[in-house]
Each structure stands twice: as structure tokens, then as C-alpha cells.
Task: structure prediction
Amino acid sequence: MTSPASDGHYSIELPLSCPLLINGEEGPATGGREFHRENPADTRQVATVAAQGSAEDARAAIDAARRAFAGNAGNWLNNYKLREQTLFQTARLMRENADRLAQVVSLEVGMPMRQAAPHVAAAADIFEFYAGLAGKIYGESFTLPNGSMINLVKEPVGVVGLITPWNFPLTQTARKVAPALAAGCTIVLKPASYTPAAAYELVKLIQQTGLPAGVLNLVPGPGTVVGAELIGSKAVDKLSFTGETGTGKMIAAQAATEVKRISLELGGKAPYLIFDDADVEGAARAAVFGMFRNAGQACGATTRLLLQEGIHDRVLERVAQLTRNIEVGHPAAAATDLGPLISASQERVVQEYIQFGLDAGLDLVAGGNKLRGGGFDYGYYVEPTIFDRVDNNSRLGQEEIFGPVVAVTTFKDEAEAVELANAVEFGLVAGVWSADYPRAMRVARRIRAGTVWIWDNYAQPVEGIWGGYKQSGIGRELGYYGLEDFLEVKQIFTDGTGLTSKPPYGQVIKE
Ligand code: NDP
Result:
């Protein structure tokens, strides 16, 4: 294993690739079409050349998954030991190839290596966790007074279509693929077009475990083509999607026509509430971590810093200091804390929000600029930026930016803090910092979000859950809930009376 050089270069050979994987066979897309993913840290470089899957390719992958499910491929559905071993071995292979995986993620996403390495470890943990659950999918049994028995058995939901985003490509994929495999589903995976190689590197390792053909199929290609085919297909029983709320709404509307089961992990506008009695240092560090991890390109990123009047100045001063110390640079360099944004369009969006803040005359506490000169000229680098005195009802207070731009708003008391926290259409995550634990707990209970952190930020243990209230989504990933998302419950009713003629039958059959 080699480490990337500190001057901003990776040791892996480029360009990376991502073929189709259908029924255990790797290959090109129909017609040999390909697309290129540039390196967001240096757009002169092609990071990945991927097969551009067509609707026909998607249909072939769905057919393969359908056949594998119907044929109980290699005893896949019945033998939980097989699924358990696949998942454990995947976790082991991920750890053995951790450096390569981290470099691939860092390269395609622009994620600093310091964040890409723990990202790989977190994804491996997810496979290991679901390996442990594969053999613990218990049913329930109940005997009625007349001796009849109800058996509730849990079965895999069937063929699942998984559509993933680019921002944390391994964990986002692991959160879907690992529980789907543990449940005994068969899969068609459509990775984000910005990060096809990250998905392929993971799929390759899973294949190495000896997975039966057709259980896991990979089709890179445009969401509007490959993703749309997964959503519209009658042969796909369930769709699990992570991405923008707008895309999620469209998927929900389309899926409704097939009554397709869906899970949606969508956008966020996370508040972090800091009360007057908070430990300034602890709270400021927690906030900054949540604000600028992965350049703020995170659904759970702290995008609204809500500060109580009495502590506002002290926290903001410390947050600004910590922000100014953030080293923006090439993601491959060991010292880099914040890399480039994912794309030119995302950079434009972020700059528009910064311009909005400047035009509104808000206090610019840190950042505000696109970085230029030297290597910065070839990537999408924007300074971590903080605006104070933001009206929570303004665009900066309401809209998901998905970049390193944070809005600070002041509140008077607990009631106002909760009101501000909830006054957005999203409800993914939030944070609370107060020395008064009963108050922190009270506030956590009143915030309408899928996760609320007290005295921490962005902790995502696999044993917990992840998912949103309101327009942040439907369903939960991680933990046992994440497995249930890929299970159906079936009732098997067995008569225990031994009678051929029973009272209810009399409603239809005369004796
Ligand atoms: P997008 O919605 O643009 O894309 C997500 C995935 O959906 C990609 O694979 C994309 O393919 C595909 N897709 C796009 N359009 C369609 C379509 N019409 N039909 C089917 N599939 C489609 O989101 P991003 O990748 O930009 O991810 C960022 C968003 O994801 C943010 O809003 C963020 O908040 C959210 N997110 C939510 C998380 C959560 O857990 N709640 C976690 C992480 C991110 P392609 O790449 O080819 O366009």
C-alpha cells in the first residue's frame, strides 16, 4: 500500500474505470458509449472513464436481478450464512484496500484524504454490522384461543433499485447495498455520475467474495435514463434513493403509479443551537466540524448556527478563528481540511448564495471568495464562508446550499430557538449545546428532525439510524430499521381446529 504524496498527487493509476456489471459479467454499455468524470481538484485531469448505461442496459440488469431472485441464485435467499460471509468478507476486503478506496473517493469527490480514510472505515463498519444481522431476521408466532396459529415471517422485498448520491459515495452505497444483501434481495445499483469509480471499486470487492451472478448488478449512466428505468420498471419491487429533495419528489410521484415501495433520503438545512450556558470551546468545535466537513457538501451539514444572545459574540469569535485556520487545498495533500467543490455548477450555486449575502448587507464573518492562483485555478475552490445576522426566513436561512456557506442567527430564549430550528421545510438533523441537560433533552424532543445531537455533531454510528422528518425523506437507514426497509412481513395462518365446517363459513355455505 502506498500513500499519496503531500504535494497533492495520488499514487493510483488514472483514469479509473467503471464498466457495467450485469449477471456477474463486466462489460461496456450498449453501443460502447462512455462518459468522463473530471478531477474536481484539477480539471485538466480525467479521473474516470465510465460506461454510459442505456435504458436497455438497465432493463438487462433488472432482468438479471429478477432471474437471480426468482431462481434463488446459489441458495442466496435461503442461506443466511452465505449472505453473512459475503458481508463480513466485503468489510475485510475494504479494510485491506482502504488506501486505494480512500484515494478513489478523494479523487472523484474532492474529499480531503483526512476525511476519505475514515469514510472508508465507516463504510466497512456498515458491511460488518449487517453481516451480524443477516442471521437474525426472526419472525413472530402467535396462537389463537381456538388453536389456530399466526406465523409472521420476514422475507426480502425482492429486486431493489438503489440510486445513490456522490457526496459520501461509499457509506451512501453501503447503507443500501449491505442491508439489501443481508435481507436476501437482489440489486441494481445506479451510482451518481460524479462518482462511478467509487461505486465500482466497492462492487468489485463484493464480487470477489463469490457472490452468485445476478445478485448485484451495476449500471452507471444518467439518472434521467438509468434511474428512470429503475423507477418505472414493474420488475423492480423497491426503490431506495438518496439525493436532492426535488429529485426525490419526482421519484415519489413516478413510483406511485406502480405502488412501488420507496425510501427517500433527501436534503437538509440543519440548525445547531448553542445556549448561553454552553462550553464555548466544545460547542464551537462541534459546530465547525459539522459546517465544513466535505466542504459542507453533506445533507446533515450544520448550515444554520443559532446562537443565544448572551453567548453570540464569544462563540462566533471562536468559530471564526477555527474557520480561518481551515486549510483549503488539494484533497490529496495530507494537511488539507477543505478541498474543492464537486463541479462547476455547484461552485456557481455556492457563489450565488455568497453574493446574495453580500447584496443583503449581512456581516461577512469569514471567507466569501473563490480561491484563485496556482493550483486553485484548475479546481472548484471556495473559502469556508460565514454570514452573521441572517434572517431565518431569507434564502440563506431556508434553502439547502450544499457548500461551505453558513448562516448565523440569534435567538432570545428556548421557545424562539425551537421555533427557528423548526421553521424550515427540512427535518434531517440538528444539534443542541447547553450545560443544562434537561433543557437540551427538552429541546431535542421538540425539534422535528430524524437525529438530534447533544454535545456532539455529525456522529453517525451504524447502530443508530439516519433519515428525515418532513421533506428530508421517508424511511430510515442504518441500524435494524435500515434492514427492515428491505423486508416484507408475511402472515401465514394455519388452522388449528381441525374442523371442516367453521362458524364463519356459514355466511356463505348453508349446512
Ligand atoms: P441528485 O438528486 O442530483 O442525484 C442523486 C442520484 O439520483 C444520482 O445518482 C443521480 O444520477 C440520480 N438522479 C438524478 N436525476 C434523476 C432522475 N430524474 N431519475 C432518477 N434518478 C435521478 O443529488 P446529488 O447527487 O446532487 O446529491 C446531493 C443531494 O443529496 C443533496 O440534496 C443532499 O442533501 C442529498 N443527500 C441526502 C442524504 C440523506 O441521507 N438524507 C445524504 C446525502 C445526500 P446522476 O448523477 O446521473 O444525475
User: Anything to note?
Assistant: The longest helix spans residues 113-134.
